[in-house]
């Protein structure tokens, strides 16, 4: 089974290049990152070295990195749709999982 959406190989420079107000290459690289780059037991600092630091979340038990994939503002200043890559780490800072958070205002 093949994906209907366009996919391109991960490229660090393109991943971190913002065009105007968005990262227009990220959505096409996410699948490659999840399949080929994020590995079990990978350390937090190695993920940051690979992808950069875009957003972080910490509490007493959870540590996550959040990477904006896209934000659609429609015709307003408030977002009407967002998509982010969320990378989860164990308390010892090792990679455990990743997923896509997709929110759309109805």
Report on this model:
The protein has 106 residues and is of the alpha+beta class. The chain has three helices and four strands; from the N terminus they run αααββββ. Strand 1 and strand 2 (63-72) form a beta hairpin. The radius of gyration is 14 Å and the shape is globular.
Largest sheet: 4 strands, antiparallel
CATH class: Alpha Beta
Per the principal axes of the C-alpha atoms, what is the gross shape?
globular
SS element count, helices: 3
Structural class: alpha+beta
Average residue-wise pLDDT = 85
Strand tally: 4
- Which consecutive residue ranges, at least 5 long each, have pLDDT under 50? none
Fraction of residues in β-strands: 25-35%
Our Rg estimate from Cα atoms comes to 14 Å
The percent of residues in helical segments reads 10-25%
Task: Set out the fold topology.
Layout: H1 12-15, H2 26-36, H3 44-51, E1 56-58, E2 63-72, E3 81-89, E4 95-104
Antiparallel strand pairs: 1-2, 2-3, 3-4
Entry summary:
The chain is of the alpha+beta class and 106 residues long. Helices cover 22% and strands 30% of the residues.
List keywords for this structure.
106 residues, alpha+beta, Beta-lactamase Inhibitory Protein, Chain:B, domain 1, four-stranded antiparallel sheet, 3 helices, 4 strands, 30% strand, globular
């Amino acid at each position: 089974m093949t994906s209907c959406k366009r996919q391109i190989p991960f490229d660090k420079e393109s991943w971190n290049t913002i065009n105007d107000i968005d990262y227009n290459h990220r959505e096409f690289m996410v699948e490659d990152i999840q399949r080929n780059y994020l590995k079990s037991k990978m350390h937090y600092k190695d993920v940051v070295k690979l992808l950069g630091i875009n957003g972080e979340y910490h509490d007493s038990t959870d540590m996550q990195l959040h990477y904006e994939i896209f934000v659609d503002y429609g015709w307003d200043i408030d977002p009407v749709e967002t998509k982010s890559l969320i990378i989860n780490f164990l308390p010892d800072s090792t990679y455990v999982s990743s997923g896509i958070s997709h929110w759309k205002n109805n």
